[in-house]
Amino acid sequence: MQTIQALFQDFSTLYIQEYKPTWLKVKLQNATDIVEVAKALQSNGLTVISTVSPTDFVEDNRIEMNYFFEDILTKRNCWVKVDIPREIEQCVIDSITPIFKGALWHEREAYSMFGVRFTNHPDLRPIIVSQDFYGKTPYRRDFDWAAHEADTLGNIQAIYEDFEQEQAQNETLLDSNSSQMILNWGPTHPASGPIRLKVHCDGEDILGIDPDIGFVWRALEHLVTKKDFVGAIVAVERLCFMDNINSMVGYCQAVEEIANVEISEFAKWMRVLLGEVSRISSHMMGMGNFYNSLGLHTAFMWNVDVREYFLDFLESYSGARIATAAIEPGGVRYTLEEGMLETLQKAIEKFDATKEEIRAIFVKNPTMKSRATTKGILSAQAIEEYSLCGIVARASGVKTDIRLDEPYAAYDQVQMDYVTQQGGSAADRLKMLFDEIEQSVAIVRQAKAHIVANIANGNFNPTKDHMVKVPKKLPKGEAISRVEWARGEVLMHLVTDEKATNPYRLKMKAPSFNHTMILGELLKGESLSDIPLIFGSLYICQGDLDR
Amino acid sequence: MIKIFDFFAHAKSESLWIAHFCTGCCSLEMAAAMGPRYDWERYGYLPTPTPRQADILIITGLVTKKMLPALLRTYAQMPQPKYVLALGACSFDGGPYNDSLAVIKNPTEILPADVFVAGCPPRPEAIVEGLEQIKYKMKHSIPSAASQGGVWKEMKF
Predict the structure, then answer these.
(1) How far apart are CA B15 and CA B30, in angstroms?
(2) A57 close to B (CB below 8 A)
(3) What is the chain B residue with the closest CA to A241?
(4) Mutate which of A218, A244, A321 to test chain B, going by most B C-beta atoms within 10 A?
(5) Does B104 reach chain A within 8 Å, measured CB to CB?
(6) Of residues A152, A188, A242, nearest to B28 (C-beta)
(7) Which of A194, A242, A305 sits opposite B36 (nearest CB)?
(8) Domain boundary assignment for chain B
(9) Rounded distance, CA A330 to CA A471, Å?
(10) Interchain proximity B96–A235, CB inside 8 Å
(11) What is the dihedral of CA A191, A196, A200, A201, to 10 degrees?
């Protein structure tokens, strides 16, 4: 920490604060310093940029830029803030993409949502937003949405015309005598989900890929500002339905930090328990999707079968299989009643009964190995450069896991270790999924035993301890919270206003964004038939890609 | 002559293929309905990768502005007779995304649906029940809602 603090002596700062055990929070005075600061931080080991997030303060007439730097080896973090003017013409800052490649799309996102222009950015085009928002600033507080909405059908036609134009342009771009062409992979491809990859290929060989994303852009970050703090979890959990518990945990932790509320020990353990169950159900789908992209549906069927038993537990706890809304600021929403843990026991037994078969048939599958061990290889260096996280990072041998790096809920009391693979190939990522399911089941066992023991000896009261009261109005403040989500690190940056009843700004950094960013690099030189395999192995969910 | 039994409509309705197209999060429960516990294939439903061979288009929840042209194009590529099943609250009125910048509040006004399945997301049993109702419509040669109206006819896609 001291070494990072010393770095800022050369720059004029408004304040330097220690924040949480591993964080340093710095506010720079001059926006022109940001590139030098980024260089200095990078040379001191903070080689990963989590995200770039602007906050729009209308009344102060400024936009505050937030940069989250991270050192994934020694687990140090630095949060750099700087103000820039709000007027569209002067809303300019130097790009840090030439130094941190991982900021490429995050800066494009800030440009499309807030109109912040980045000088020296290699590819400053709008991203995520649909064509009718090009050149507009939808996330600014004073954006006139009602006026924009007046002509919805016209806007949809504009999107279509833009698509037509693009196709016509493709025709003129390519030499009609060559074998080059531009293919659209998705959004109706069975393995793609709602994403379109513009594949520039020569025969079977891929020359380049430009992902077109935003097909499920729901503007969640804007949506939460219209809801109160409890209502916002409806939007937050829809970040991605496959693992919704952990995203709610991240958001609720940020609210609790601003409200200065400490939740009960029982609620912390329940968050671990529910979070791991949710992670298992997500990973089961992930394994199924991986095999689906290879054209084999048996794995999907087997995994979905086991997954149903874990969903039974979520259903017995919250009443809903998927949209549980089970985590709320102040703890967990429901009490733990008799019989619920027995459903969980059944799920664990079902997993134990089938896991050796799944391992033998799917994880050690020779056909899969010969197909996938040489494809989609990511080096540890690429992981850092592009800020990849979660199972993708750990499959390349990078030891990063927020549950251990910055323990939240009751993870500081849980016995666990980093699970990694060394190869970094598509097959390694599949193995990671299975290893993590096993790890999660072990954690679920621990959490269950702990909860049962403490209820028996009277430490936990499952009908009263689940919630602590959180005030409806929150003070002015901001907080960040990080959780290890099924796909990797989710960083929530929550800003509140004076006597706030709803979030002023919530930035959700979601892992699939970075994982899609690297697709172009990963697929260059491969053949067309490898797209589903490599895309499936990156464990991308369009829900958190677009938000 | 009184028609007692339309053989072809009956035969069509017992083997319904579904266009494999995800517009939103309800597709996760659609996947569960495909799985071994709910197993919609018992009733003759099968997802097919190409709309050219599909009988049913499922609007799986929310439809964003960007997604709508692709959805309409998929629908247009399907052969007659074709039916639309709308899942979840989003396809009716935007559901939880009613206040969202990018989501169309009433996609079924643009592409009318034959059957709505309530829920957010609907349970797999409910999805199968919704499909059964489409099967009934097909068996009795009831014309689909989208063939009779909707904004989609005036749109370019």
Answers:
(1) 18
(2) no
(3) B25
(4) A218
(5) yes
(6) A242
(7) A305
(8) 7-154
(9) 9
(10) yes
(11) 20
Alpha carbon of A524 to those of A200, A202, A210, A294, A373: distances in Å?
10, 11, 11, 19, 17
Nearest CA-CA partner of A161 in B23, B154, B157, B77: B157
Q: Which of A14, A16, A38 is nearest to A26 (CA)?
A: A16
User: Directed axis angle between helix A265-294 and helix A244-259, to 10°?
Assistant: 150
Q: Which residue in chain A has the smallest CA separation from B72?
A: A160
CATH code for the structural domain at A220-546 = 1.10.645.10
User: pTM score, two decimals?
Assistant: 0.90
Q: Best residue in B27, B34, B97, B101 to probe A by mutation, most A CBs within 10 Å? A: B101
- pLDDT digits 0-9 by tens, B39-83: 898 998 988 888 899 999 999 888 988 888 888 989 999 998 899
The fold for domain B7-154 equals Rossmann fold (3.40.50)
CA A46 to chain centre: 20
Mutation target among A143, A162, A185, A241 for the B interface, most CBs of B within 10 A: A241
Closest CA to A522 of A395, A351, A333, A421: A395
Select from 3.30.460.80, 3.30.9.10, 3.10.129.10, 3.40.309.10 the CATH code of A2-142: 3.30.460.80
Tell whether B86 is within 8 A of chain A (Cβ): no
**Minimal Cα distance from B37: which residue of A?**
A305
The tens digit of pLDDT for each residue in A195-241 reads 889 898 888 899 889 888 889 898 888 889 988 889 899 889 888 88
Domain map (residue ranges) of chain A = 2-142, 220-546
d(CA A436, CA A482): 19
DSSP tally for chain B: helices H, then strands E: 6, 5
